[in-house]
Specification:
The structure is a single chain. This protein is an alpha+beta fold and 255 residues long. 27% of the residues lie in helices and 28% in strands. It is built from four helices and 13 strands. The strands form three sheets. Strands 1, 2, 10, 11, 12 and 13 form a six-stranded antiparallel beta sheet that branches. Helix 1 crosses helix 4. The longest helix has 23 residues. It is globular.
C-alpha cells in the first residue's frame, strides 16, 4: 500500500489541497523521471511558485468577494524619482488609512506592492484592501481623500480565479526587477490559514479530484505535475463551500 502526503490549507469557505509522494515512495506501477540535482532556474521557479501560493492564501483568508484590488497612480510630473520616496508616499497613505480605521474600531488589513514600468516612468502601487462601509468608514471615499498624489482605480474581487492571478501578479511584479523598486508588503494583522498534514494510505489519489458533500472543485484550479527534482507526481487544487449548505466539512476529499 502506497502512502502519500496531503497538505490542507483551510481558509473557511475555501480550502486548498496539495498531494505528493514523500521519500522514495510512489504510486504502484508508477514510472517516474530520474532524480536530478535542481538547477538555479528550478530553485527560482519553485521559490516564486511557493511565494505566490502563500500570497494567494493570505488573500483568500482575509479578503472576500466585493473587496478591492486598488491601484494608486501618480499625476504626470509628480512621480517620485527614487524608491525610498515612493515607499514614503505609500507608508503615509497606509498610516492615514490605519488611523481612520482605528478611530472607528475597525482593523485595517492590506497587501501592497509598488511597481514601475519597463522604462522606469510609469510608477504605481497595487493594494488589496477590504471594502468597509459602516461605523463612519467608507473605504472608497476615504481612499480618494487620502491618496493625494494622483488617481485611484478600484477593481472588485469576485471570480475564483482572480485571487490566484492577482497573487501571482503581485509576486512577479516584485521579482521581475533587480532594481529594488518592486517590493511586496503586508499588514501584520492578516490571519494565516489553518494548515494540517495527513498521511493517506492509498494506492493513488483521485484524478480528477472529487469534493466532499457541500463543496465543489474550483474550475481550472486542478494542476497535476511532476516535481523537477524527485521526478514524482503531485497534485494541487482548490475546493469551495457551496452557499447555504448545511455541511460543516472543511477538509479535503477522502482520497
Amino acid at each position: 500500500m502506497a502512502v502519500y502526503r496531503k497538505v490542507i490549507y483551510d481558509m473557511g469557505v475555501v480550502v486548498q489541497i496539495e498531494k505528493s509522494y514523500p521519500g522514495n515512495f510512489g504510486a504502484p506501477g508508477e514510472k517516474r523521471s530520474k532524480k536530478k540535482k535542481p538547477t538555479p532556474e528550478d530553485v527560482r521557479r519553485q521559490n516564486e511558485r511557493n511565494r505566490w501560493r502563500k500570497v494567494q492564501r493570505l488573500i483568500l483568508m482575509n479578503f472576500g468577494e466585493g473587496d478591492w484590488h486598488l491601484i494608486l497612480k501618480y499625476r504626470p510630473g509628480e512621480r517620485p524619482e527614487t524608491y525610498e520616496e515612493a515607499k514614503a508616499h505609500r507608508k503615509k497613505f497606509l498610516d492615514r488609512m490605519r488611523d481612520a480605521y482605528r478611530k472607528a474600531g475597525i482593523p485595517f488589513k492590506w497587501i501592497a506592492v509598488t511597481e514601475r514600468g519597463k522604462r522606469g516612468q510609469v510608477l504605481h502601487h497595487h493594494l488589496v484592501i477590504q471594502d468597509i462601509r459602516r461605523d463612519g468608514i467608507d473605504t472608497v471615499k476615504l481612499v480618494k481623500k487620502l491618496w493625494t498624489y494622483g488617481s485611484e482605480f478600484f477593481s472588485a474581487l469576485y471570480e475564483d480565479g482572480e485571487y490566484e492571478k492577482l497573487a501571482e501578479y503581485i509576486v512577479k511584479a516584485e521579482t521581475k526587477e533587480e532594481s529594488g523598486w518592486c517590493t511586496y508588503s503586508r499588514s501584520r494583522n492578516l490571519e494565516e490559514p489553518v494548515k494540517t498534514v495527513e498521511k493517506v494510505f492509498h494506492k493513488r489519489w483521485r484524478n480528477p479530484p472529487v469534493a466532499p458533500e457541500g463543496w465543489y472543485v474550483v474550475k481550472d484550479s486542478v494542476y497535476n505535475g511532476e516535481n523537477p527534482v524527485t521526478g514524482r507526481p503531485f497534485q494541487h487544487y482548490t475546493i469551495k463551500k457551496l452557499i447555504n449548505t448545511r455541511s460543516g466539512k472543511k477538509e479535503g476529499d477522502s482520497g
